[in-house]
UniProtKB/TrEMBL annotation:
<keyword id="KW-0328">Glycosyltransferase</keyword>
<feature type="domain" description="Glycosyltransferase 61 catalytic">
    <location>
        <begin position="115"/>
        <end position="215"/>
    </location>
</feature>
<keyword id="KW-0325">Glycoprotein</keyword>
<keyword id="KW-0808">Transferase</keyword>
<protein>
    <recommendedName>
        <fullName>Glycosyltransferase 61 catalytic domain-containing protein</fullName>
    </recommendedName>
</protein>
<dbReference type="Pfam" id="PF04577">
    <property type="entry name" value="Glyco_transf_61"/>
</dbReference>
<dbReference type="InterPro" id="IPR049625">
    <property type="entry name" value="Glyco_transf_61_cat"/>
</dbReference>
<dbReference type="GO" id="GO:0000139">
    <property type="term" value="C:Golgi membrane"/>
</dbReference>
<dbReference type="InterPro" id="IPR007657">
    <property type="entry name" value="Glycosyltransferase_61"/>
</dbReference>
<dbReference type="GO" id="GO:0016763">
    <property type="term" value="F:pentosyltransferase activity"/>
</dbReference>
Length: 319
């Protein structure tokens, strides 16, 4: 038996889904809320985690250490009896990707969470940073998706070329499981804009500096969830948030089902009873997009103007 002097915070890693969105929405933002709601400033809780995976503990080791200096107790492979002066079980949530300062004793916000991320991952001396020293154009990260997972930008090459013509230095990024999180943070936080179709990869907007630009491409049927998951949170972080809602002619669903089908004309009528597996499959997995470049370039032009303003405020040289 081990007797601990510090209180415990016990929660489940939920089987480690691997979804970047759910890692932050279901775990790390609620963990931040709970630590700042339940424990006093001089308390350092011991994290007691169940249903975690070795890869998950390795990938998020630095972030977990930001919440506690104590060694994590992994209930899945620890047979020792542990005694604590108190135990808090479960995590608090304020909703999708948000922190409500009215519900937290010290009035922490999503900006405080961002500051913790910067303290954890900022200041890294990666080769990526030194390679940027010669770049004086605003950097745009184009989130890529491939394969049969849905929401792929079918004319991605053309979109990249259009962004470059507007003046951006474009970095294509398709998140990989094995990419170290500190490298991802360095790339995103040193950029001035990100563009992507609604999906887990847009969670990386949490790493952007205030004033940077987020352009979320909203596919058919995803208006509500796009705003709830990313729109409100981006604005809470002081980001310049833009939403590009695609038309029927830009969605693969239009060709598959016909523009007069109810799932195209009135998605909300199908979703009002909830997000069933069938609904998710149609709008999230069956749907790809081909952006209207004439219309989308207007958004890129506006994003470029906002990115230049951000660079100037940060004292960066603009050519």
């Amino acid at each position: 038996m081990i007797q601990h002097n510090a209180p415990a915070l016990a929660f489940s890693a939920g089987g480690c889904t691997g979804s970047f969105f759910h890692e932050f929405n279901d775990r790390f933002i609620p963990l931040f809320i709970t630590v700042n709601s339940v424990f006093s400033n001089d308390e350092d809780p011991i994290l007691v985690i169940s249903k975690s995976c070795n890869w998950w503990l390795r990938k998020f080791a630095s972030l977990l250490r930001s919440f506690s200096k104590h060694q994590i107790i992994n209930l899945d492979n620890d047979t020792t009896t542990h005694c604590f002066p108190s135990v808090t079980i479960g995590l608090l949530s304020h909703g999708f990707m948000t922190i409500d300062p009215k519900l937290i004793p010290n009035q922490k916000t999503l900006l405080h969470f961002h500051a913790m991320l910067e303290k954890t991952y900022g200041g890294q001396n990666h080769p990526f940073i030194s390679n940027l020293s010669l770049k004086s154009r605003p950097r745009l990260v184009l989130m890529s998706r491939s394969g049969s997972i849905g929401r792929v930008i079918l004319n991605r090459v053309d979109v990249k070329r259009a962004a470059e013509k507007e003046g951006f230095h474009v970095i294509e990024f398709e998140p990989k499981f094995e990419t170290p999180l500190d490298e991802v943070y360095t790339m995103i936080s040193s950029s001035h804009a990100i563009v992507g179709v609604h999906g887990a990869a847009l969670t990386n907007f949490l790493f952007l500096r205030p004033g940077a630009v987020v352009v979320q491409v909203v596919a058919i049927g995803l208006e509500w969830i796009a705003e709830e998951c990313f729109g409100k949170s981006a604005r809470e972080l002081g980001l310049e948030y833009m939403e590009y809602k695609i038309g029927v002619e830009e969605s693969s669903l239009g060709e598959k089902y016909g523009k007069d089908d109810v799932l195209i004309k009135d998605p909300m009528s199908l979703q009002k009873k909830g997000w069933s597996r069938e609904i998710m499959d149609i709008y999230l997995e069956q749907q790809n997009v081909k952006l209207d470049l004439v219309r989308f370039r207007k958004y890129l032009k506006k994003a470029y103007e906002k990115a230049i303003i951000s660079m100037e405020k940060n004292g960066e040289h603009v050519s």
